[in-house]
Amino acid sequence: MKIAVLGGGNGSFAAAGDLALSGHEVRLWRRDADQVAAHRAAGSRILVKDHNGRHDVKLALVTTGIAEAVKGVELILCPAPAFAQTDIARLLAPHLRDGQVVFLPPATFGSMIFAQAARDAGNHAKACFAETGTLPWLTRKHGPFEVAITIRAKRLPVGVLPLDQAPRALEVIGQAFPGAVEPCGDALSGALMNAGPIIHPPLIVMNAGPIEHFEKWDIHKEGTQAAIRRVTDALDAERMAVREALGYGAPHFPLAHHYAKEGEIWMYGRGSHDRLTDSGDWRERIVLTEHRYMREDLRLGLSLLVSVAGLAGVATPLAKGFLAIGGAICGEDFTQGGRTLETLGLGNLDKAALQTLLRKGF
After folding, report:
1. What does the H/E/C string look like for 10-43?
2. Confidence of residue 272 (pLDDT cuts 50, 70, 90)
3. Residues ≥6 apart with Cβ < 8 Å to 72
4. How far apart are CA 50 and CA 142, in angstroms?
5. DSSP string, 59-71
6. For 277-314, b where at least 16 C-beta lie within 10 A, e where not — what string?
7. Is pLDDT of 275 > 90?
8. Verdict on whether the full-model pTM lies above 0.90
């Protein structure tokens, strides 16, 4: 299958390298012209490291031209952080064609941003947009063109916009992630599967002292203690209550299953937390005011949860509390703006109208 991967971070390099390793024709687009030139000079290759060893794979194309990257591809994969989505969606919008699938893993309801960008560009192609609950890889770059994959996702709950085109989207995404894709309804359901806004805000806020004291700190090892886990479960209960109130059924992929030794298998499979901490790749320096855990998962992810909870009539005191504290850490007011139904231009829709939009699209 022909696949375009958008972005230059950990997730994008894992996607490009792993999908090329699986035999797909992969084109990588990123905006940094100097990095693209350097990558081309290095042979347009990515070194993928996993539990099976080291794999040197060649990409079909590395480019700064997004039109060139996506022409004729079936799947467009964009694992870029949520705060980069608006710019990327605007660049991509004129070039989408009938039948193409844009997959955002995960997205914080970014599928709506990409669909709106296509509408605003006057592009009426029958493309569809989808998002899931986590990045399909636990991964970190180890060099400019080298990426380590600790774990590949076993289960990916995927929501599609418009829902009426879900069969096509799920079939295409399933070719890239065979056996892992699980339909979860519309794109908002997919957005409410996002684990990042549940796992990361308690870990960075409740570990703010050691994060700023130590040169490097592993929030998933020393930072994951029983008190924090109890808060994480309570925050996750708010997410699941919102899902239930909107009529989304189980499975809700509770984050507790990520840590459990038995019971239902979570997105990354059994034992993923231990493998993550054993890798050492998450012992890292986190600048709280800048890191995507704060700027993406807390500010954008929790503002979306609070906004959708308001529509659903569900109380979210913990989500609101983390927004307030995270904003205080950054010297900003995170309770204003962020990613909400209002900032997405959907604030005037009731539940029925929003569900119609999610089903039929623009």
Report:
1. HHHHHHHHHHHHCCCEEEEECCCHHHHHHHHHCC
2. confident
3. 2
4. 12
5. -SEEES-HHHHHT
6. bebebbbeebebeebbbbbbbbbbbbbbbbbbbbbbeb
7. no
8. yes
